[in-house]
């Protein structure tokens, strides 16, 4: 809370679930907004920038500074909130950044050896703005009928080949 302005609820996914995902579950979005005790919810997790209004309440997702899921790729996204007349006004900002340099640093710092196949999904997501990380997890879990955390690198490689990573 900031004196003189409406209270904000801030979370990563949803107020009751770190991994809650409004983009994948419209019913969850409505349920959370109906039960929200403030008029503003600032959330994230989806890497998708948006403002959504429901029953005089506002949900704001600032997006992602480096892994924007926007269908474009190579964008850094954020939001600025302005206090105005005891209310909040938001501005969404999306700017391009030097993706090639970022990806060179990604490799130079040894990150390719840490995440291997998953890093390929991250890199392609950065370039395209499509969530290949999500595709990798869903496809792997469906193909091998097990939780992604239990996958072997060989399982992931098969899925990566199928997804063109």
Notes on the structure:
With 165 residues, the protein is α/β, with parallel strands linked by helices. It is 37% helix and 22% strand. The chain contains six helices and six strands. It has helices at 26-35, 99-108, 111-115, 117-128, 132-144, 153-163; strands spanning 8-10, 40-42, 50-54, 57-61, 75-84, 87-96. A four-stranded mixed sheet has the order 1-2-4-3, covered by helices on one side. The chain has a two-stranded antiparallel sheet with strand order 5-6. Strand 5 (75-84) and strand 6 form a beta hairpin. The longest helix is centred in the C-terminal third of the chain and has 13 residues, at 132-144. It is globular, with a radius of gyration of 18 Å. The mean pLDDT is 90.
List its traits.
alpha/beta, four-stranded mixed sheet, globular, 37% helix, 165 residues, 22% strand, 6 helices, single chain, two-stranded antiparallel sheet
Q: Rounded to an integer, what's the Rg over CA atoms?
A: 18 Å
Strand order of the largest sheet: 1-2-4-3
Could you tell me the mean pLDDT? Answer: 90
Number of helices: 6
**Which structural class is indicated by helix and strand composition?**
alpha/beta
H-E order: EHEEEEEHHHHH
Largest sheet: 4 strands, mixed
